[in-house]
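Example record for the data management plan.
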Amino acid sequence: CRLHTVGLFTSLSVLKSGMQCVKLPISVRVEINLLLLAVTGLALVTRLYGIHFPRAVVFDEVYYGQFLSLYMKQVFFIDESGPPFGHMVLALGAYLGGFDGNFVWNRIGAEYTSNVPVWSLRVIPALAGSFCIPLAYLLVVELGYSHFSALGACMLLLMENSLIVQSRFMLLESVLIFFLLLAVLSYLHFHKARNSSFRWFWLMICGVSCACGIGVKYMGMFTYFLLLGLTAVHTWQLIGDRTLSYVMVQVLVRFLALVVLPVIMYIGFFYVHLTLLYRSGPHDQMMSSAFQASLEGGLARITQGQPLDVALGSQVTLRTVSSKPVPCWLHSHKVNYPIRYENGRGSSHQQQVTCYPFKDVNNWWIIKDPGRHTLVVSSPPRPVRHGDIIQLLHGMTSRYLNTHDVAAPMSPHSQEVSGYIDFNVSMPAQNLWRVDIVNRESDREIWKTILSEVRLVHVNTSAVLKLSGASLPEWGFKQLEVVGDKIYKGYQQSGMWNVEEHRYGRSQEQKERELELKSPTHSDIKRNLTFMAKFLELIHNYLCAHICMLFSFLRSPAQRKAFGVVILAVLCSVYVSYHNLSPLTYGQPALSSDELAALRWRESWDILLRKR
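Corresponding structural encoding:
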């Protein structure tokens, strides 16, 4: 009983001492910046008032609206001008407004129909543009200027008509500016709040904002690089001033927040994009056959259930892996090359072989065993493997794919590719091709439908079957030129082919075979492409598009030289930095005391000096 009494008195004394620490009544003090509140209110009014007017397509709404409709219908698309996050932000407004995607975005000025929620389509850019004003106010204050200066900057932005206009329509500029301002403001908060518990929270917000800005438009990279540069400078100032463990923690946290987190979010944008858009659409042709086959409908409907292993006797269509200048299929038709070209050069006058950018019955070829006359698949099928020698017979004209030492029509440095016709002249058939599976995992890998990237190497001349990209004249129906390239080196997508449509041939006679080629394929094998494979293919297309855009701006020799000088200067600076610091990296050559002292760029770099 005595123990319980002592415990009770102890508890009461603790409670009493705790109550004495708490001052009653409990109150909460809140500071409201009325000036900031007023500026935000004015921004909302100027950006949101009357955004449903005009009820018609304005400027780039005709461009972004097409992607909105595709999002609403979950149809795949690719916008080579930028990543998908900005389109998803606009699509969110359309989804919340109940837009069904049924509107024809064909011209600026077209009146919106009743099913288009104009206010919902425009409200997210308007809100982003409105919140840019208070962000600008806070940014100016954070830079150390007075509230009066911040108010002046806000008024300039508040009444800037160009910013108002781009915020009131379904455009991405205001969304981009919002995320970039938030990123810069968050980093300044992080840098100045050295002893605050919210410091790392602001760094995370900075990383998230940078990822969102880049996800809207690639122009956000400039602000991102600016912040990375500031981070590098501020981190550099820590080196030598603190312990090594402290510096390592600081560097690691900054790296995770400003590099790893944005990369994960950037990949996440594409994951959501590809998860939402699972149906086949008009942009499929820009992607590989494997990518197209992973989408619902379209090529997936055509190729569903095709045999996976290519065998001797298989009937196939061969699509170039490259999508430049356009995706196309190996093709031939009953028209010969002209005896003499416009420039006076002669040809073999054999059957034309081209690359045709549309599906056609003349795209079908038969994989034939050179040692046998049969054109049907045996039972069991004899698969074609890496390194096998085959012949390719055109299904509709029964001409063998051939190349020889005759100059191609548009690319005289390469060999002509033709469907061989025996004219009884001294021009023997050269129609043997070696199968080279580029993405193989073993030396005897089987040629796979859609999945295998194949290089066809001519046995006699070692030339590679390749799409040159040049268009043939009228006599070639403006189709794309296919050549045999003898100086082919490295990995070039223009020299890679994959089997897109595939069936096991059952007809030996020409008439029966023609009917078979015009009939749909049968069988049941399902293929799925992983997200990372799709992501890497999309990134490859983005990079190709932007590199081509860059070189389109560098048209004059002077521009190219200036660009080359800039690149050379950057590379030289990297080399100089590497060369000067390499003795510290490798420990040799040995440095004198003066040379070592010259590398001591900061007074706190005592680690470079041996103290006795």
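Summary line stored alongside the record: Residues 318 and 499 are 5 Å apart (CA to CA).
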